[in-house]
Design goal:
315 residues, alpha/beta, eleven-stranded mixed β-sheet, 13 helices, 17% strand
Length: 315
């Protein structure tokens, strides 16, 4: 087990992770340059440090994407034996930053598919990441990756999807970053309307849910969209084409109904995936399979026992 954990960046994700580990009685420290964040973390009962410990087993980097490379270089030198994971939402730039920092197999790219529209330690919650799905990018050392997966499935009760960094970035462009872009576009359209106050009074659940992440933290959204522009651009092209087709179908009720029916018929494919899990006797074997095969490997625990499933790569 990874017993001594330092979390660099005590915002929503880093703070939630630190609170969860502390609630389990784990040895965890947070490192954050912001005085207010440090004070909030101390008030919550967390140990706050000025820098990462050289003897740390695991360092979790939860800083903004635009500071990731600099932070990785510092952590690589300050904690020379630690496994280092980042929780950024784009994994190819993280892998390049880790290589530049000389982390080699010590770096394991991870991404929790959980969060809220809020930022900052004041919104951190020890339960936020519990039971969430985590992406783990293959490319780090096999043993290091297996230890991280073991830690995630144990302390965070996570379901872990092992996949390539490029595949991860394509997937999150589709299910995370494009929704952020669409939320901003919809909010901007509504705000530019002739009667935005009336529109606001009439806005209900679909508008609220569809724009929840818009207008909250422009810097965070800029980082994720710009860092993943290569994967996000083609997805937005496809969404724009789909919207254009739907726009044309407004004049043809039969075509419109058929288009909506087709989407409804495939609803379960994305919203409720159901991989075929089987018993897993070795995490190391599961990680090696993820590297060897052109399929994502999903790992979870049920009743303390490891289970694994293989799913096709995203096209």
């Amino acid at each position: 087990m990874l017993d001594r954990v330092d979390v660099v960046g005590a915002g929503l994700i880093g703070g939630s992770l630190a609170l969860r580990l502390a609630s389990l009685g784990r040895s965890v420290r947070v490192v954050d340059p912001d005085p207010e964040t440090r004070a909030r973390a101390r008030a919550a009962g967390l140990v706050v440090a000025d820098d990462v410990a050289p003897e740390a087993d695991l360092v979790v980097i939860a800083t903004p994407l635009d500071t990731l490379a600099e932070t990785m270089a510092h952590v690589a030198a300050s904690a020379p034996a630690a496994i280092v994971i980042d929780v950024g939402s784009v994994k190819q730039p993280a892998a390049r930053a880790a290589a530049s920092a000389g982390l080699g197999g010590r770096h394991v790219g991870a991404h929790p598919m959980a969060g809220t529209e809020h930022t900052g330690f004041e919104h951190a919650d020890a339960e936020l990441l519990v039971g969430a799905t985590w992406a783990v990018a293959r490319g780090g050392g096999t043993e290091e990756t297996a230890r991280v997966v073991d830690w995630l499935t144990t302390d965070l009760e996570a379901t872990v999807v092992l996949l390539g960094a490029a595949e991860h970035d394509r997937a999150v462009a589709l299910v995370s970053h494009a929704p952020h872009a669409l939320a901003h576009a919809l909010l901007a359209t509504a705000e530019a309307a002739a009667q935005p106050t009336v529109a606001g009074l009439l806005a209900a659940g679909s508008f609220r849910d569809g724009t929840r992440v818009a207008g909250r933290n422009a810097a965070r959204t800029f980082n994720m969209l710009s860092e993943n522009a290569g994967a996000l651009g083609p997805v937005l092209d496809e969404v724009i084409a789909e919207l254009a087709a739907l726009r044309a179908d407004l004049a043809n009720p039969e075509a419109l109904r058929a288009r909506l029916d087709r989407a409804a018929a495939t609803d379960d494919v994305v919203r409720r995936p159901d991989p075929d899990f089987a018993a897993c006797s070795s995490l190391t074997d599961a990680v090696e399979a993820a590297v060897r095969e052109s399929q994502a490997v999903v790992v979870r625990r049920r009743g303390g026992a490891l289970e694994v499933a293989r799913v096709p790569a995203i096209s």
